Amino acid sequence: MAPWPRRPRLVAGNWKMNRTAEEAVALARQIVEAVRGAPPCEVVLCPPYTALESVRAVVRGTPLRLGGQNLHPEPRGPHTGEISGPMLVALGCQFAIVGHSERRRDMHEDDALVARKLRAALRHGLAPIVCVGETVEEREQGHTPEVLARQVAAAYTGLASEDALATVLAYEPVWAIGTGRVATPEQAEEAHRLVRDTLDRAVGAGVGARATVLYGGSVTAENAASLFAKDEVDGALVGGASLEAEGFVRIAAAAGR
Ligand code: PGA
């Protein structure tokens, strides 16, 4: 598979626990059709596991890429209900979302587990999309900088810079996910700077400036352009708005540069 360029504009659709395989095929076909073979930026679809194989058949031969929504740190073994890096790779995935706040909340994933998953993804040749972000309480109490620094440092400390640059980060304030309450471009910009500064400290000087950092949380076709107008914002991780082809492709078009 062709390597993807450094710091590309990237828009990933996280379909979460939505769409049966049949419904996913219909959505993927609409997206392929709307993009018409020439996506304006890197576009990654992350359907549920049960739809990966059928969506793969739809995106084969197009520039659209496929990602898993999670992976287990181990390659195989007695882990009922889990999915491994090699399984995702075998289904044509090039990406895997790691540390999404819904999994941190629902499955009690902590920083240490997220760090293991990040490394597992890299080991298997997947680009992890590593999610970090503060809760509303943390923001209101002024703890956003330390929360982001803690999450990024825990995930990245000890990585070689080339490994860190093979990942994608996503700043996803928990209070913005699925709420319709999008961060302002200035809030995103400030948080992305914090993320990049922490990467410099955790991995090495200059890594932050070269890392791809997405914003996620209530991104829509209407607000995407104002977020992408900030140099710090390299694209978006999109939930709800990725379930509707036309709006999702408009977000990708806004990210193109
Ligand atoms: P949302 O989800 O776009 O529906 O807010 C974003 C995400 O969870 O990645």
Automatic annotation (TrEMBL):
Enzyme class: isomerase
Organism domain of life: Bacteria
Keyword terms, alphabetized: Cytoplasm, Gluconeogenesis, Glycolysis, Isomerase
Subcellular compartments: Cytoplasm
Any GO MF annotation of the entry: triose-phosphate isomerase activity
Positions bound to substrate: N14, W15, K16, G178, S218, G239, G240
InterPro entries assigned: Aldolase_TIM, TIM_sf, TrioseP_Isoase_bac/euk, Triosephosphate_isomerase, Triosephosphate_isomerase_AS
Catalytic residues, chain numbering: H100, E172
Pathway assignment: Carbohydrate biosynthesis; gluconeogenesis; Carbohydrate degradation; glycolysis; D-glyceraldehyde 3-phosphate from glycerone phosphate: step 1/1
Any one cellular-component term (Gene Ontology): cytosol
Record flagged with keyword Lyase: no
CDD domains noted in UniProt: TIM
Chief localisation class: cytoplasm
Family: Belongs to the triosephosphate isomerase family.
Subunit and interaction comment: Homodimer.
PANTHER family, A to Z: TRIOSEPHOSPHATE ISOMERASE
Designated name of the protein: Triosephosphate isomerase
Gene name per UniProt: tpiA
